[in-house]
Amino acid sequence: MIELQQISKVFNKGKINEVTALNEVSITMQKEEFVVVVGSNGSGKTTLLNIIAGAELGSSGEVLINNTDVSRLPEYKRSRWIARVFQNPLSGTAAGLSILDNFRLAAIRTTPKKLTIGINGAFKKRVEEQIAGLSMGLENKLEQPIGTLSGGQRQALTLLMSVMDDAQILLLDEPTAALDPRSAKVILEIADKLIKQYHLTAILITHNLKEAHQYGTRLIQMSEGKVLRDLKSAEKNTLQLEDMYRWFN
After folding, report:
1. Which residues, in sequence order, are CB contacts of 70 under 8 Å at separation 6+?
2. pTM of this prediction?
3. What is the pLDDT along the chain (249 residues), one digit of tens a residue?
């Protein structure tokens, strides 16, 4: 469970270019809830994700994960609970390493590091089986540098790697923004499947209203650093896409 209690974030406080990115935002996200967040540029969406991840610390308010106050914990300490997928497929992988090496690094992301990556037969088989589920034929290319793959392939593998170390929370920061429509559809289908399979609490930021309408169990619209709309499952299920377009007209 994630609890945001009266979270505010002010950049350049006291200066002429002061900006309030979040203004006393309070949101409670239940375990296994899939929350989609929409909003115009500058509405506070990415700042919200950064505050949850610990990439930014709030100016005021508290962040609780599973009833533990993590408000002042840096990002690397929150990584025991949180995995994040960014919009740029290049951000989640080490281009010069093989697919298998990338998966091993993801699996030990939150554990003490040793001098060797430590890949054995059992781990390789586990990775092969997981990648085979993507139906992309990549399970036979584990030694190939991951940087040689397409953006869609890399983003699909990044999603798989995000669940390698038993993270409980998945943050999806516009993961389809750099992809063509066909690849974007595949990526969101994979994400939706993994969220359900691994019982994750997930947050998806998107500018694509069709994606926001189709996916998730809850929909939040942000505007000027505040929550403008918060539609739970029953209300979201009856929402028409045309109604969402009118929000921004």
Report:
1. 54, 63, 64, 77, 78
2. 0.91
3. 899 999 999 999 888 999 999 999 999 999 999 999 999 998 999 999 999 999 999 999 999 999 999 999 999 899 889 999 988 877 778 888 999 999 988 887 765 545 445 677 888 888 998 899 888 889 989 999 999 999 899 999 999 998 877 889 999 999 998 888 989 999 999 999 999 999 999 999 999 999 999 999 999 999 999 999 999 999 999 999 999 999 988
Structure tokens at 74: 């840096």
CATH class of the region 2-91+150-247: alpha beta
For the record, the structure tokens of 224 come out as 């000027």
Q: How many whole angstroms separate alpha carbon 82 and alpha carbon 102?
A: 18
Domain segments of the chain as ranges:
2-91+150-247
Amino acid letter for position 54: G
d(CA 211, CA 231) in angstroms, rounded, equals 15
How many whole angstroms separate alpha carbon 164 and alpha carbon 85? 13
- 179 in helix, strand or coil? coil
